[in-house]
Design a protein that fits this description.
Number of helices: 7
CATH class of the largest domain: Mainly Beta
Radius of gyration: 20 Å
Distance between the termini: 35 Å
Shape: globular
Structural class: alpha+beta
Largest sheet: 8 strands, antiparallel, barrel
Helix content: 25-40%
Number of strands: 15
CATH topology of the largest domain: Lipocalin
CATH architecture of the largest domain: Beta Barrel
Length: about 290
Amino acid sequence: MGCSNKKSKRIAKATSLHYDTATQVLDTALIDLKSASSLALENVLGQFWKMEDADQKHWNQLLWDSISDKKKFPELALYRDFSLTENARDHIRFGKWAVNKKNRKLLLKFTDGTTEIYTIQKIAYQNLVVSKKDADGNEMTLYFSSDGLVHKRPEEDPFYPSNNRWRIKPSRSETDQQILDRLKQCAHFYALFFSDNHQRQETDISFIGLPNCFVWYNGGIGLPLEGGLDNKWIDCFYSKKEALKAYQMLKTLIEKHVLVWPEHPTSWIKETADMLDQVHDKIKLE
């Protein structure tokens, strides 16, 4: 089943001049920044940005993985509470962001203690051009794009920091309950991920770079064979042994419980989000 039905009623119009006012009076999932006549700089910055291009000298460094010989997909998710997630599809990092309007500087402070400072060259509701110095002091230019849509409640965005803590490898062995909690958070992330794609009316969903333990069908979900588990997902756990334990827990749950599929689904994307919500709710020690 394709996603042919438009869901424009799920997208709020940011008709107010102030972003916060718009979100307070509109009880919908997404806000369309493009419809606002004026927004503060930090409110335009506070959205999900995808790096589309870079200057010729730095393109390979920023957008190509020489080891896998594949294109990279750098991303920068800035939220209105000034939290951030960088490179959710690659080497994910979390932190805080701030902007100096006078100097047009974007400051990123990461939880690993590192910082990045960008100069904002150009910005619009769907385009952002920034520059910074490379290790040799040469200027690099980065080009980002966005769809101009933001969640009214940032915690409903799949890439919001708290929705991705399960991806941070623990420093010590975990109990069965901790492994279950990590698995539960994984299911919650993917429920939000599918819901977000549905709300944005996406029909071509990209899983590139995301750690995954599911097999996706058009109208169903399943699990791969144990030997076919994604190494990136395995690496979210303390050890392969604990990752396989999580896999067996999930496999037992799916085999034991009957998932109730919607009778009249609006799209397979929304249908999958609903199923993952059920999986999330059923993950518990028995």
